[in-house]
Automatic annotation (TrEMBL):
It comes from Flagellimonas sediminis. Keywords: ATP-binding, Nucleotide-binding. NCBIfam families: IS21_help_AAA (NF038214). One of its GO terms (biological process) is DNA replication. GO terms for molecular function: ATP binding. Residues 96-229 form the AAA+ ATPase domain. It comes from the Bacteria. The lineage of its organism: Bacteria, Pseudomonadati, Bacteroidota, Flavobacteriia, Flavobacteriales. This is ATP-binding protein.
Amino acid sequence: MNTKTLEQMKQLRLHGMLRAFDTSLSPESMDYTNDELVAYLVQSEWDDRHNRKIERLTKAARFRYGAVMEAIDYGPGRNIDRNRIQRYASCGFIRKGENMLITGSTGVGKSYLASAIGHQACSMGHRTMYFNTAKLFTLLKTSKADGSYLKFIGKLEKQDLLILDDFGLKPLDNINRHSLMEIIEDRHGKRSTIIASQLPVEAWHDVIGEKTIADAILDRLVHSAHRVDIKGESMRKKIKNKR
């Protein structure tokens, strides 16, 4: 009977429940009441599905860094408030569809912070995608050429959290400017976007160009956005000096 039950669990793809039930059959396992066994099996299946979902979301996000919230450096002079960052880790701003703007000079940890929040979002079940901004614009232009642009834009719109890293390294051309406007317009008030940039927010207007579109984009991005301006020297330089 147990062999048949295990096989049926396998066919039903109840992988967590199957492993738990198989373990419960070993002589070393603790004795369960009927209620305890059912609870154990259901919890094991729930945990397995939850963990596999997190793995799928994290893989789909395509993060550059394997960043974690616990490794963020709150050292003096970095202008990173631990309490604020821990609030962001609850992902309440994502549930509200609010944006976050992370600025600071090269190497101070902007990308790491954005990625850590992104990993946290995945662990809480939020669909997330990470892009280097220049590479995203290249992909968008390619999608226009092969006819998949609308599908790609639709996919971006559905993400609970979209992370655009290294924004503003060079001015936007007309095509990229309109693509950014479309992305931000589609997500405005519904989904969250994190933008990390070496430039202060005040300089983004010139990077975007064309005053009317720049005003429209920044009005949707900046209004009520959470802002983190990281200070201090390059973390890469500090790590190199320690070696």
